[in-house]
Amino acid sequence: MRENEAYQASCKERFFSEEENGVPIARAVLVDMEPKVINQTLSKAAQSGQWKYGQHACFCQKQGSGNNWAYGYSVHGPRHEESIMNIIRKEVEKCDSFSGFFIIMSMAGGTGSGLGAFVTQNLEDQYSNSLKMNQIIWPYGTGEVIVQNYNSILTLSHLYRSSDALLLHENDAIHKICAKLMNIKQISFSDINQVLAHQLGSVFQPTYSAESSFHYRRNPLGDLMEHLVPHPEFKMLSVRNIPHMSENSLAYTTFTWAGLLKHLRQMLISNAKMEEGIDRHVWPPLSGLPPLSKMSLNKDLHFNTSIANLVILRGKDVQSADVEGFKDPALYTSWLKPVNAFNVWKTQRAFSKYEKSAVLVSNSQFLVKPLDMIVGKAWNMFASKAYIHQYTKFGIEEEDFLDSFTSLEQVVASYCNL
Amino acid sequence: MTQSVVVQVGQCGNQIGCCFWDLALREHAAVNQKGIYDEAISSFFRNVDTRVVGDGGSISKGKICSLKARAVLIDMEEGVVNEILQGPLRDVFDTKQLITDISGSGNNWAVGHKVFGSLYQDQILEKFRKSAEHCDCLQCFFIIHSMGGGTGSGLGTFLLKSLFDIISKIDLMVNSGKLGTTVKPKSLVTSSSGALKKQHKKPFDAMNNIVANLLLNLTSSARFEGSLNMDLNEISMNLVPFPQLHYLVSSLTPLYTLTDVNIPPRRLDQMFSDAFSKDHQLLRADPKHSLYLACALMVRGNVQISDLRRNIERLKPSLQFVSWNQEGWKTSLCSVPPVGHSHSLLALANNTCVKPTFMELKERFMRLYKKKAHLHHYLQVEGMEESCFTEAVSSLSALIQEYDQLDATKNMPVQDLPRLSIAM
């Protein structure tokens, strides 16, 4: 079918480059300062038999970064800059119409965070006309890495300068999705990563470029940025998707667009991380009334104000889906009209096993509270000077910490004042 | 992947070392079924073609030919090292890795440190350098020694200074001492006889096994795969908030004293509870009732992130963490369990519960020192002066004071400090 061919072609063009024997090679560059995970990743990909990573697309070292942002940024960065940028350049050269980079990293460790920030900065220098979106994993509130708050604030403050958009995924939120919606008993990182991949897929799989055309979008990154980041002060994006459930439950559930969209809207305004436990007592202010006063970080029940939202719908009868609820001006800050702040992409083709699915990519106050918490904890630790010697050892001074704190307090304040 | 070198000093150090190498071989034999020399096994062993004379025998890949421990064995008496070289592990070491003498240090730190230190300084440096050269990417020196004798304590601390030359390129040095206090290592794991309950014919055997297991578990996440790896340099990064407070208390569950014992599988959550009980600590200490500065949980076996988080949530309320590190947990998951068990947990804590140990040590020391008991044995050694003693006591006192100050904050309410305010 032509439709199928068009979809496949779009996927291939977007994510893969072709090799001689017809096996697609992912348009990806893998970087790590220790070898175990990359080795696992490469062999898992090759096992599928349907695609693989490029032979020379990896850069690996032996020692790791010891969970030290300063080591990743100030030691590994400069040391391996040339090698890493070379690999990236080769990959870019394979593209016909290159639009930008999607950088996947965590904030809690040393390599993803520190080296990730360094590489992003380099990309800004060397590819200033290209877009950069960083996908960042927000660590669990407890128990991953003790210095995760330091590593996080250093990462976020640096990326705020050199990246165009930050797509943030919280481990705690995804963990809850696995537990409550997918009913997984013993949750592993593999489960968590599956959910993440699903969320990313629901955003980045091809969609039609306009309401009634049958051509797939060719610059999703550009389109996302254009819709969602109208102002450089506001770069934090988050993803909410619906539905999310185990295979067993799926068999007994039917969906309507009205139902899905109603839930999704409520998730947006009440700042829920997933469909269960949505606070139904939160309502947007009635239009015509004066805007709500500044968002208080202490209030539990607060209304989530958005700068911009993008809803992507995939599945049967998608043309009948009514998204008017997302165009309510009360949802948005006063300086952008809903016609500019809200966009919807619709595609007939279903995603994964869901007959109908919807994903919301939102630039809103979703992440202010978690950000504020991380800044607070890092600040308390910084006041005692604990662990600082581990950073100054590699050239990250107290000054640098203070700069990071200042920029992030600014971000928190800006979002709170929406 | 990186390599580590084990330096075993003195009678105690070498006996523990012997247990360690035995266990390490068993562990790798269980995991490495095909006999291929891989990265995991290279962390502690070299692969050598024994037919080649001299230094050129190292093989980096392919089938295992002959495994040699990355170790340096030092003792000022010959007895223990000779026993090792005649025992089942004799092929794992070669004579080039040994430094021995005949007379021993007579339980005299000064003799170990000053006399043998200066006598063997060059040889020690040479052996260390050689062992480092055999490594592709050396990350860590493990130094095993006791504090109570003469060689382990005296020579053990002496060689630390030598190591600093080499380790300007390496980040980590871990000391495993039986009640070890040393000059300036990055972190120190202490253990004593506190954990042992049963009486064994050879009591030290069981204890040595525990310490050996500790070392294996400490490095498991760096050697083997898992969903949340932890390298050795992450230990010092996360567990040492201030350079002087680098003393760690460890606990191991299940606590196994013999290599092949078949312990009935415990419920997973019980394993976590045990790790925090007084009885499972490898130092006579009670971390639960003292203040945590940081805590690391290194899990092995079929355990997932949700199990780990569930247990942290469960145990957290009964533990006290310092105000600036309320969520001070570092975690790792290694999928390979230790031999004979389905899972295990090693907990490393930076906790003020070490303070009583140091205070007791100081007290016992002062009792002897005030009477000048045995002092002449030390002072008659060239290079040894009273100031060595007074400096040692004052640095110990300073350390105790640091812990005191932290303890004083224990029951204070946690207050958030005022944040930077931004003009809008």
UniProtKB/TrEMBL annotation, chain A:
Q: Show the InterPro entries listed in the entry.
A: Delta_tubulin, Tub_FtsZ_C, Tubulin, Tubulin/FtsZ_GTPase_sf, Tubulin_C, Tubulin_CS, Tubulin_FtsZ_GTPase
Q: Residue span of the signal peptide, if any? A: none
A cellular component term from Gene Ontology for this protein is: nucleus
Query: Which terms under GO biological process does the entry name?
Result: cell projection organization; microtubule-based process
Q: Which residues form a coiled coil?
A: none
Tubulin/FtsZ GTPase domain residues: 12-211
**Primary localization:** other
The keyword S-adenosyl-L-methionine appears for this protein:
no
Q: Which GO terms describe its molecular function?
A: GTP binding; structural constituent of cytoskeleton
Q: Which subcellular locations apply to this protein?
A: Cell projection, Cilium; Cytoplasm, Cytoskeleton, Microtubule organizing center, Centrosome, Centriole; Nucleus
Q: Which UniProt keywords apply?
A: Cell projection, Cilium biogenesis/degradation, Cytoplasm, Cytoskeleton, GTP-binding, Microtubule, Nucleotide-binding, Nucleus
- Keyword Cytoplasm assigned to the entry: answer is yes
Assembly and partners? Found in a complex with TEDC1, TEDC2, TUBE1 and TUBD1.
Q: What does this protein do?
A: Acts as a positive regulator of hedgehog signaling and regulates ciliary function.
Family classification: Belongs to the tubulin family.
**Name of the protein in question:** Tubulin delta chain
Q: Which organism is it from?
A: Homo sapiens
**Highest classification ranks of the organism:** Eukaryota, Metazoa, Chordata, Craniata, Vertebrata
